[in-house]
């Protein structure tokens, strides 16, 4: 496990038999009971893999942290002295399945099939994407960008009318339910422009992650606005991105949006201003 390799009972049995041959223990068979006793002795158990990684990514972790530290120093040296908190923004995308179900349940020991009924099978695999916007004041600003998955890539006439009823949402759709370069341009020309116009902001900084769909800086060009783009280094978002620090943990508990209310509280402690979150995270 030190090398992050997957280990199973068969591996333990194979290694035990190899060692037994070295020690000339001819009667040792690495039985099921021996394997279970060995695991209890060394506090081992079968666990669900919570995250897949690569050896290269683990080796690169130090480089990721150094790059994140450089971005924080840039923030301290060039951004914070020259921009007021309402002029500094972070936006990010989060994807969800329409239905969230655990893949575990209490059931009868020994049963061959464990079934759980759901409303629709495609709801487990079909997704939607949301994109909130946060400023350095710790406030969620502007409409929430919601991109739904529609097989035909467009809304029918009834749905197209319904989605305009909610003033706090800007709703689009694609076949995949994911955002793309064109939708990022739409976000900037509509939601972000509304934010800047409403606050009379002509000069601002926008922090983005390294997702390829928003690497083109021309996507964020607006007449009369100076938008300075700051890109978080790949792999660093969980360390220093404000929206990653504040918001994702609330979604698994209640992934459904209340269409009559803002999906989150209108104020949050400022991630940018809290040095223990943004400045001293590493």
Describe the structure.
This protein is an alpha/beta fold. It has two domains: 1-52, no CATH class; 57-104 and 117-279, 2-Layer Sandwich (Nucleotidyltransferase, domain 5), CATH 3.30.420. The protein contains nine helices and eight strands. The chain has helices at residues 9-22, 32-41, 55-59, 61-79, 157-162, 181-198, 237-240, 242-246, 275-279, and strands spanning 88-91, 94-97, 127-131, 133-135, 144-149, 169-174, 203-208, 226-231. The chain has a four-stranded mixed beta sheet with strand order 4-1-7-8, with no helix packed on it. The chain has a four-stranded mixed beta sheet with strand order 2-3-5-6, with helices on one face. Strand 5 (144-149), helix 5 (157-162) and strand 6 (169-174) form a beta-alpha-beta unit. The relative contact order is 0.15. One of its GO terms (molecular function) is nucleic acid binding. Residues 171-245 form the DDE-1 domain. This is Tigger transposable element-derived protein 2-like. Pfam families: DDE_1 (PF03184). It comes from Galendromus occidentalis.
């Amino acid at each position: 496990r030190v090398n992050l390799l997957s280990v199973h009972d068969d591996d333990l049995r194979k290694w035990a038999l190899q060692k037994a041959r070295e020690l000339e223990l001819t009667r040792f068979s690495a039985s099921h009971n021996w394997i279970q006793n060995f695991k209890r002795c060394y506090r081992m158990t079968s666990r669900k893999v919570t995250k897949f990684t690569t050896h290269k990514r683990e080796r690169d972790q130090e480089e990721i942290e150094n790059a994140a530290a450089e971005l924080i120093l840039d923030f301290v040296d060039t951004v914070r002295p020259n921009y007021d908190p309402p002029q500094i923004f972070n936006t990010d995308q989060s994807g969800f399945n329409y239905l969230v179900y655990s893949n575990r349940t209490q059931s009868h020991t020994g049963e061959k099939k464990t079934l759980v009924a759901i409303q629709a099978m495609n709801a487990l695999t079909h997704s939607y994407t949301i994109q909130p916007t946060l400023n350095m004041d710790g406030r969620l600003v502007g409409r929430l960008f919601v991109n739904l998955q529609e097989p035909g890539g467009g809304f029918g006439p009834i749905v197209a009318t319904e989605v305009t009823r909610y003033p706090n949402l800007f709703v689009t759709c694609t076949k995949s339910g994911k955002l793309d370069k064109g939708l990022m341009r739409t976000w900037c020309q509509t939601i972000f422009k509304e934010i800047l116009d409403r606050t009379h902001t002509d000069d601002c900084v926008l922090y983005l992650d390294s997702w390829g769909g928003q690497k083109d800086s021309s996507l964020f060009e607006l007449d009369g606005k100076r938008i300075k783009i700051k890109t978080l280094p790949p792999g660093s978002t969980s360390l220093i991105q404000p929206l990653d620090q504040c918001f994702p943990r609330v979604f698994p508990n209640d992934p459904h949006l209340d269409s009559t209310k803002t999906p989150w509280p209108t104020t949050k402690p400022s991630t940018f201003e809290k040095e223990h979150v943004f400045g001293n995270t590493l």
